[in-house]
Task: structure prediction
Amino acid sequence: MSQEEAGIVIAGAGHAGGSAAAFLRQYGWKGPITLVGEEPLLPYQRPPLSKAWLKREATADNLALRPERFYTQQRIATRLGMRVTAIDRDARRLALADGTSLPYDRLILATGASPRRLGLPGETLRGVLALRSAADADALAAVLAPGHRIAIIGGGYIGLEVAASARALGASAVVIEREARVLARVAGHALSAFLESRHRAEGVELLLEAAVEAIEGEAGAATAVRLIDGRRIPCDAVLVGIGAVPNDALAVACGLEAGGGITVDLAARTSDPLIHAIGDCTRRPLPLYGREARLESVPNAIEQAKQAAADICGRPAPIPEVPWFWSDQYDLRLQIAGLAFDPAEAILRGEPESGSFAVFHLAADQRVLAVEAVNAPAEFMAGRILVSKQRQVAPHLLRDAAMPLKDLAI
Amino acid sequence: MPQVTYIEHSGTEHRIELEAGKSVMQGAIDNGIPGIDADCGGECACATCHVYVDEAWLAKCGTAGEQEASMLSFAATAEPNSRLSCQITMSPELDGLVVRMPEAQH
Result:
């Protein structure tokens, strides 16, 4: 036991790490808290990076999760621009990139995820970008200008949101997706088809079932994306948005249980009782679905931050929440609650042509697994309740837009 | 600077100064006041910044927009004076505002 109390060290100053520090104080932790972050910024919101921040509708103040004075007032020490290089579990110390080390009594890993790399020739050319940090977003904003064309590799949420922002900024956008539809891994067919049609109507070029062979360049800068079928897509810049990989290397190196993310329980505990892990870097149980998965979302980061803070402060574990996500593209607000694992049936409520509709995904026993709502906040809220109650609903009741959702959900 | 009082479900009161133009949700987050989660950061997408506005201030806070009203109608603990605090913008007219928090946001 050291003379000085080392307190809690949080490795990672993103949404998860910043929220954990705040919840620890709210739940009564009086000892030291140190937040170590690799980026030079205090915790900030990443969701606006592909939207309001790119379109310069948000300021650094809007982006910050909390103002600087919060950390002073709450006695949360920050070590920004500092990378953790190793964890010594026996000595309870973190090695830092500047050669010093930092002791801890309890450690919370909130190391996040990194953009998945393409692994193809040309990836290191200038103008080949990813989007994770504010610095990435600034680099991207610099190329989204009228007359410029951006090639977006990957038709996931990041790719589609950036395509929408590019159009708003007057740039051309071409989305190159390997699968037969956009959002193939995360959305149902109806939502994919609706978004494809909307993006095309906005002037986005969508290339589906299109596999990239290489990025071509001149004088060190990207000039085109070459597909395996020989097509060549000329462009001024390339955004690679093909998913993220968990930053679990530190955890793996010190022997914590991991596999596709750091393994945690519903109290965000790792296999070491003194170490919790939260956010994008974890693989967590999903009690509503009887399985484990890695969730990359702000609500998940906040939920796990609460779990860890509650566990450390000796409070009861919070009630598990329904995973949920949102995305804004053009004037469309997408809200998704639940996860459609092994869906048996997709029920459409409302007319996609009207611009407001929802798709409910049901299991074989008619339990509601997930809802995808487009400009349909009531359907989203009702779906979230139905998922949390694991309610079985007859498809015709969901399909009937005259049937009040309140009667089904509450 | 205008002041806001947040009353936790337990009865604990927090009075803070909140600059005009900032949302009542942001005031709670910036000052570490428990009881407002604000998962979506103020986008009116999550309904986790639900508050009850003190009756005396209800009219001055304006009315909920369509999206906000839709979301609130499904909040388990919604009352006629329920609002999403990310949609209430602080102004000199709201100096002295009192809001109460529900037992839980989820």
